[in-house]
Write a structure and sequence with these properties.
Keywords (chain A): Membrane, NAD, Translocase, Transmembrane, Transmembrane helix
Radius of gyration of chain A: 23 Å
Subcellular location (chain A): Endomembrane system; Membrane
Order of helices and strands of chain A: HHEEHHHHHHHHHHHHHHHHH
Number of strands of chain B: 5
Helix content of chain A: over 70%
Largest interface: A-B, 39 and 35 residues
Structural class of chain B: mainly alpha
Strand order of the largest sheet of chain B: 4-3-5
Order of helices and strands of chain B: HHHEEHHHHHHHHHHHEEHHHHEHH
Family (chain A): Belongs to the complex I subunit 4 family.
Protein name (chain A): NADH-quinone oxidoreductase subunit M
Oligomer: heterodimer
Pfam families (chain A): Oxidored_q5_N, Proton_antipo_M
Shape of chain A: globular
């Protein structure tokens, strides 16, 4: 009913307008009005993000899940030469928009208390970030996609660098340069695709839908795939290019970590689904063993690394790398369960790891340390917090009944069909995840309270109750009724797989034909 | 009469120089420099727009010495407007430094006249005359603060190395003249096409490229740049970083795609190596700089490297990419320097990067626009700098120079490191010192260039006609 309205551009524009509004108002505010400005900015930002949430709920309700193609498509002339403004969503991207719109108000709510200085600037950066993240998932034009994909670095760089911890400058540089290096290689590949579309089609174009039909020779596919891979693997992050993530997470403020884990890491998986598989099917098949190897290494190795961490945030950051390993493993299984599982795992991880970072934020705001050894026996002082933390820890481990289970089991079913060994390695990772997650829980929540400073710690406030409660609700809801997600994504994933199989059918059979032909000769 | 309408912009400037010198005898006192400056600014804007007002006439004049086409119209538009802006932002600086003399405006007009002849040269002699005319004016401008040791050193260094480069250029020209028997571009091209190449022509081309590489400060001919940028008065540095670079780039394009078109295979290698060396020298050299002007010097070396990448493609699209890249670079440079000129600390102008620490808290507006400029220079979307790179590197990729493009992108990541340092200083560090009340009159330049860099891409009704203009400008050389 709303599909003829420009709902996607509105989703991108509303947070942007909110950010500009805050910027102008704070510019005009006199010195004596500063306090008031600082007080009102979070509320304004919250209002803006709630409008975005409402709009994205409308988007999802109005979304036709049975249609595998792009919906809500908006097109307008832009730069000329085939580079035009194109936006649209399909089953793969629509839920990420909802996830972004859902997490942002929670982050703003949490930051209103935990951020002490320069609140207005913080809110501006956050709204800007929201606008850009939604833009990434809406974009149907390769240039537009790249703009959003890379511009996300700017607000995140500022969020880590201005409001981060003691070592924030190192972390923000590492985050920025690492991801930039990955992105520019993708840019080279995008330029190549653009140039090639001019040769093969009547007019050069960067329309993401049209570029699927490009005929790319095998050896070029390999290089282009690697260029895209460089970008997405860093974003994801995959082992061994994950080292920026623990630094960025530890130094970022709570809400920054939530967005980083909840949305930014998903850009990599989204990119694999949107570009690597449809554009370079042969190269994807060729590199699938590499991805499996890296994924299993990530799952096992980073789980072990996580176990040895003394910083709560670092532990969760490493566990994120392990969980993203499940996503890549599922995606490159090239079957329904694997890709559906990968998508589900991304959504679920967005909720669960976001919630875990909020939990760390709760204790950090009270005690200003994330050292695991500092805590212990919190269950006596903070029973409600302990219950929430338990739920999210279990969801992180993948306990049935929580959303974490569905994603992991689906990706493993998908991977098992391709290689039982890969699935076995991933299963080992699940056991290891129980090891580090329970270790974290035992050390902080249970045991004797040895630290006297913890005597004054108080249980969750109403605001924290709301945040954690909402996340807990959806974690359980998706755990018991995963069809909420899978029904929306199914049609698009099915189409993706059938196109993928059609594109790779010939090369896969070719090695089998070769010996027969040799025999005939 | 036709020659007159074709050459109207140049004649206007030439007449203006005489007029200003005569007028300086009549207008005396405090107002002298101001009056001359506003006249010069008005003349430069008229100069920039004349070609468009007259409907972009085309043809050659002065017996084929100069050519007027869409390429030269576009180049004059950018040169004239930017030079006018450079005059505007020099005002407050020269006033506070007590250097406000009307000769600066005259020198500026001479320089622009020289550049105008450069970009419309159709003959080796015209090329050389234009180049020397602007170079002589630039040497004096670098040393305009004659009582300052650093400025005199900068002027002298610039002069000595500039004279050396002119020598190389002249030697190359004489070789080409000797082996082809022609000075006019069309004649040279015709001889090369008819008789093929020989060592003399190639050698002449190499020497000419070396001489011109000095002018755009492409590595390995970049040594003078950091010292001159640092020593020259800041507004002069801002001018050096933008207009002469654009003019010299345009001249190189005219030379390479005109008379030397037949030597493409040979000059492509030179352009590629200049590009490769420049971008890495620029990117790595800037890493350890603490002075903003030196940083901008290395940044301009790196940017000249990027601008040479599309030229190496040798296509219309490549030329267009170069024009887009250079235009965006000019806008950014003007913005950065007019921002620097607005900030004073107790003991003089802002010169060190650390002087900017905590700027986001002391002067938010300025911090915002500088952030836009430096992110744009780093080529981060959605700022215009990204589109400069997009249009510059795309054609090179089409011409199968993919390794050059990858190298350029990697260099731009290294470059991002030092641009980020400026941003870090402004946003992540605590304010260390008070700024003295600075002139606010330049705010409109910084604000509007920052707005152009941010918003232009959102305006398809500007970008699409602008592309049409650039297309015809680039096509004029083919």
């Amino acid at each position: 009913m709303f599909s003829d309205l420009p709902i996607l551009p509105a989703l991108v524009a509303i947070p942007l307008i909110g950010a500009l509004f805050l910027a102008f108002v704070s510019r005009l505010t006199q010195a004596d009005g500063r306090d008031q400005m600082e007080r009102n900015a979070p509320r304004t930002a919250l209002l803006v993000s709630l409008i975005v949430l409402l709009l994205s709920v409308v988007l999802v309700i109005d979304f036709d899940a049975s249609n595998p193609g792009f919906q809500f498509v908006d097109e307008a002339p832009w730069l000329g030469g085939g580079i035009d403004f194109r936006m649209g969503v399909d089953g793969i991207s629509v839920l990420f928009i909802l996830l972004t719109a859902f997490l942002t108000p929670l982050c703003i709510l949490a930051s209103e208390i935990s951020i002490k200085e320069r609140k207005t600037d913080y809110m501006i950066a956050f709204l800007l970030l929201e606008s850009l993240m939604i833009g990434v998932f809406c974009a149907l034009d390769l240039v537009l996609f790249y703009i959003f994909f890379e511009a996300v670095l700017i607000p995140m760089f500022l969020i880590i660098g201005v409001w981060g911890g003691a070592n924030r400058i190192y972390a923000s540089y590492k985050f920025f340069l690492y991801t930039l290096l990955g992105s520019v290689l993708m840019l080279a590949a995008i330029l190549w695709l653009y140039a090639q579309s001019g040769v093969q089609f009547a007019d050069a174009t960067t329309d993401m839908r049209a570029l699927k039909n490009l005929d790319i020779p095998g050896n070029v596919q390999t290089w282009l795939w690697l260029a895209f891979f460089a970008s997405f693997a860093v974003k994801m992050p995959m082992w061994p290019v994950h080292t920026w993530l623990p630094d960025a997470h530890v130094q970022a403020p709570t809400a920054g970590s939530v967005i980083l884990a909840g949305i930014l890491l998903k850009l990599g998986g989204y990119g694999f689904l949107r570009f690597s598989l449809p554009y370079f099917p042969d190269a994807s098949v060729q590199f699938a063993p590499l991805i499996f190897t890296l994924s299993v290494i990530a799952i096992i190795y980073t789980s072990l690394v996580a176990y040895r961490q003394t910083d709560m945030k670092k532990l969760i950051a490493y566990s994120s790398v392990a969980h993203m390993g499940f996503v890549t493993m599922g995606i490159f299984a090239f079957n329904m369960q694997g890709i559906q599982g990968g998508l589900f795992q991304m959504i679920s991880h967005g909720l669960v790891s976001g919630a875990l970072f909020f939990c760390v934020g709760v204790v950090y705001d009270r005690m200003h340390t994330r050292d695991i050894a500092f805590y212990g026996g919190l269950v006596k002082r903070m029973p409600i917090f302990a219950a929430f933390f338990l739920l999210f820890t279990m969801a992180n481990v993948g306990l049935p009944g929580t959303s974490g289970f569905v994603g992991e089991i689906l990706t493993m079913i998908g991977a098992y069909q391709v290689s039982p060994w890969v699935a076995a390695g991933a299963a080992l990772g699940m056991i290891l995840s129980a090891m580090y997650a329970l270790h974290l829980y035992r050390e902080t929540i249970f045991g004797e309270q040895v630290n006297e400073k913890l005597d004054v710690i108080t249980d969750v406030t109403g605001r924290e109750w709301l945040i954690l409660g909402l996340l807990a609700f959806f974690t359980i809801l998706l755990g018991v009724y995963p069809a909420l997600v899978t029904d929306v994504t199914a049609a698009s994933v099915e189409q993706l797989i059938s196109e993928f199989q059609a594109a790779t059918a010939v090369p896969v059979e070719a090695p089998e034909l070769a010996p027969e032909l040799a025999g005939v000769n | 009469m036709e020659a007159f309408s074709l050459m109207a912009p140049e004649l206007l400037l030439a007449g203006q120089t005489i007029f200003v010198v005569l007028m300086s005898l009549l207008v005396k006192g405090d107002k002298q420099a101001d009056v001359m400056r506003w006249i010069a600014i008005a003349m430069l804007i008229t100069f920039a727009l004349t070609g468009f007002v007259l409907g972009r006439p085309e043809g050659t004049s002065f017996n084929g010495l100069l050519i007027v086409d869409d390429f030269s119209h576009y180049a004059k538009l950018i040169i004239g407007l930017t030079a006018a802006l450079a005059l505007v932002f020099s005002r407050s600086y020269f006033k506070t430094e007590g250097l406000d003399r009307f000769e600066f405006s005259v020198l500026m007009i001479y320089a622009v006249l020289g550049m105008s002849i450069m970009v419309s040269a159709n003959n080796l002699l015209a090329l050389y005359l234009g180049l020397e005319m602007q170079a002589l004016a630039l040497y004096i401008m670098a040393a305009f603060n004659r009582d300052s040791l650093r400025a005199s050193e900068a002027g002298l260094k610039y002069f000595v190395l500039g004279a050396l480069s002119s020598g190389l250029l002249l030697y190359g020209m004489s070789l080409i003249y000797g082996f082809t028997g022609h000075l006019d571009f069309a004649g040279i091209a015709a001889v090369i096409e008819a008789d093929g190449l020989n060592v003399g022509i190639i050698g002449g081309m190499v020497f000419m490229m070396c001489g011109l590489a000095f002018k755009i400060s492409a590595a390995p001919f970049h040594m003078w740049t950091p010292d001159v940028y640092e020593g020259a008065p800041t507004p002069v540095t801002g001018f050096f970083a933008s207009v002469p670079k654009f003019a010299a780039m345009a001249l190189i394009a005219r030379l390479l795609f005109g008379p030397l078109e037949g030597v493409f295979d040979q000059w492509q290698q030179i352009v590629v190596s200049l590009a490769l060396v420049s971008m890495f020298v620029g990117a790595i050299g800037a890493l350890s700089q603490r002075n903003i002007k030196r940083l901008m010097a290395y940044s301009s070396i790196a940017n000249m490297g990027y601008a040479l990448v599309p030229l190496a493609a040798g296509t219309v699209l490549g030329l267009k990419g170069m024009l887009i890249f250079m235009t965006i670079y000019v806008i950014t440079s003007i913005g950065v320097f007019s921002a620097i000129l607005q900030m004073r600390i107790r003991n003089g102008m802002v010169e060190q990067i650390t002087d900017l620490s905590g700027l986001s808290q002391t002067n938010r507006g300025m911090a915002l626009v500088l952030t836009v400029f430096f992110f744009s220079l780093a080529g981060i979307p959605f700022f215009l700098g990204f589109f400069g790179k997009w249009y510059a590197f795309g054609p090179a990729l089409q011409a199968d120079l993919w390794w050059l493009v990858v190298a350029a992108l990697v260099a731009s990541v290294i470059g991002a490191f030092y641009y980020l340092r400026v941003i870090k200083t402004m946003w992540f560090e605590e304010p260390s010192q008070e700024f003295v009340d600075a002139p606010r009159s330049l705010r409109w330049i910084t604000t509007s260039s920052a707005l152009i860099l941010t918003l232009l891409i959102l305006l398809p009704f500007v970008t699409i006609p602008a592309q049409g203009l650039l297309d015809s400008a680039a096509a004029a050389l083919f």
